[in-house]
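COMPLEX REQUEST
Ligand: flavin-adenine dinucleotide
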Amino acid sequence: VQFELDIVEDAIRREAAAAADALIPVAAEADDSSVIHGGVLDVLRRSRLCDLVVPTEYGGRFERVNPVAVALVREQLMYQSCAADLLFVMQGIGSYALSLAGAEEVRRRWLPRVARLEAIAAFCLSEDGAGSDAKAMTTSIVEIGGQLVINGEKTFISNGGAADIYTVIGREGDGFSMALVPAATNGLVTSPTPELIAPHVLGTVRFDDVQVPVTHRIGAPGRGFDLTLSTLTCFRVSVGAAAVGLGQAALDEMVRHASTREQFGRPISRLGPVAQMIARAWAEVESARLLAYRAATIARDRPEEALPYASMAKVEGTEMASRVVDLGMQVMGRWGLIRGSRMERLYRASRPMRIYEGATEVLRMGISRALCDASTTPDRLLRS
Ligand SMILES: Cc1cc2nc3c(=O)[nH]c(=O)nc-3n(C[C@H](O)[C@H](O)[C@H](O)COP(=O)(O)OP(=O)(O)OC[C@H]3O[C@@H](n4cnc5c(N)ncnc54)[C@H](O)[C@@H]3O)c2cc1C
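STATUS: Structure written out below.
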């Protein structure tokens, strides 16, 4: 068995599908906006789906975050709206380290609000000089007299400027540490990033002698990258599922158009090359879906083995989404090129997915290393 949904997970899939349907009236406007859209916020708050990204003890639904549940929700939300998908997943990415290793008092203060979507979360890793090479970062964290003092600038931060809490990674001595910084802290200043081809809630977050009590440290000093890796293992797999949702939307749009558009006296779906494109697209979406849920199941049951599978699901899902949307554009002819049309939105939305949370080429290096590294047994990886 490669993956199976239990009854609870299947119910979550249906809940998420209902929330996605409720997004239909606002999706186009929200996806064209680089600020958080009130309509999307309302639908997500009412859906209570964000309680899936926080542990039960702090107002969440599961004892620990279930990557299959997160994947199911992202597939459904992304089918309708990339803004809704982003808002949902950043609540998890921006708070997961706090759930794992924050001080009790800080967890109690923020996590229930994250679960209810009353506090918005963000995750600050990238800097202008530190993208794929995240360890090139220059942001610093220093402990002085019971305070953590943070200096540096994080760029292209999802929810930057909109968030209530920022999980920040910085250099501390020879290692990297993590801290939670509430948005209202003195010295934290945000500014917008340039508009992307697919609008996204993004900002630059500057820390000028920002001070937070040492209780805002997340995890032990020097362990910031371990927590980053745990966060990525849990959530990277869900980028693959979100890409499946996007690919499915493109496939459905392509099929709708090809079945109704007539040329040469029949629907274009009957023209050989168009039928070939549709068949290819369907198989691509289904293959990526299988991989995404297989990887999510491994992340749920054996998180210590999940990283290469999570990376594979992310790479193959996002590459698939780009190929399928491109096929969709071709099938739609001039109608797919119209600005604001569903296919054009999907075309733009699919592109950044191959870059953020690990560019395809970078992740493929890691996948290859996991298989070839002498310390892992390829047999075990292949048969797991
Ligand atoms: C929409 C969006 C949202 C984002 N949100 C966040 C966020 O919330 N928090 C955050 O911290 N960051 C965020 N980022 C930043 C994101 O994580 C970086 O864009 C990503 O890590 C890639 O870094 P880069 O863009 O600087 O590309 P670079 O590192 O400059 O890489 C450019 C290209 O070089 C190639 N390359 C680089 N290194 C290697 C390598 N070692 N092996 C093989 N090929 C390589 C790849 O093809 C890659 O695409 C976001 C970015 C986008 C676009």
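REMARKS: Residues 49 and 148 are 33 Å apart (CA to CA). The radius of gyration is 21 Å.
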